[in-house]
UniProtKB/TrEMBL annotation:
This is Uncharacterized protein. It comes from Enterococcus gallinarum. The keyword Coiled coil applies. Residues 5-32 form a coiled coil. Keywords: Coiled coil.
């Protein structure tokens, strides 16, 4: 019985570590995605401004 409890505790600890690693991966990807979206928005704004300047 005690052996089963120890095995379960080890499995839970392993799953917690895996979960933490996945959370960190999600955080990194989310940060990258936010930067990409911001960059695209800035580039789109630059194109609009350039077209407006050319139209004047």
């Amino acid at each position: 019985m005690n052996n089963d409890k120890t095995a379960m505790e080890q499995e839970v600890e392993s799953l917690k570590k895996e979960n933490d690693a996945l959370k960190e991966t999600v955080r990194i990807y989310q940060n990258h995605l936010e930067k990409v979206i911001e960059h695209q928005a800035v580039e789109k704004y630059r194109v609009v401004v350039q077209k407006n300047r050319e139209a004047d």
